[in-house]
Design brief:
With 207 residues, the protein is mostly beta strands. It contains one helix and twelve strands. The strands form three sheets. Strands 1, 4, 10, 11 and 12 form a five-stranded mixed beta sheet that branches. Strands 3-2-7-8-9 form a five-stranded mixed beta sheet, with no helix packed on it. The structure holds fe (ii) ion (FE2). Fe (ii) ion binds next to strand 7.
Amino acid sequence: MMALMNRRAALRLGLLATASVVTRPGLARSAAECRPTEPDTQGPFYLPGAPARIALAVPDEPGDRLVVRGRVLHPDCRTPLAGTLLDVWQADASGSYHGATEQYRLRGRLRTDSTGSWELTTIRPGNYRLGAGMRPAHLHFLVSHPAHPPLVTQLYFRGDPYLGPHDACGEACKSGDPHRVIGLGREEIMGREVFVGRFDVVLGAGA
Ligand SMILES: [Fe+2]
């Protein structure tokens, strides 16, 4: 039991290189709220070919540890979509992106399990300058399932001073969307405090 707990704790802190997805039940939106997750701009920093992994940050990556978990759901907001590919990329804690020559730092691809669940570990991204303004901290997602149109979107964090009308990306990024601005809780794992958030994705209907 202790070994299992230590392994899970290590996974959450990004101390192990590979892992299966941790399964947890998710909350579907109510019927009245059911609609596909809104797309967002892809931005200029996407790179194909990121490695398959759930730990986007290596153990010595600077920044606050962050665990994000959720589900990917059918357009009915209830049916889980197993085997969905999530391609995730983000800036580091100082707001810079990194590429293939840095082992795809802070990038990774992971798949949902049989319950549509996924979980990743990383660090909290920083804000970065765009033109004369600033962007709210965010994770980028490209979500792909063969029966549904691919979704390119971004995930934001509650309390960021650059959300919505203060986002240098303007209307194009829609960072005021309440379904994509998550609150973060905290968990203590192996004596280390980790931020934890949840992001459920609803894909659109196929052609
Ligand atoms: Fe970005």
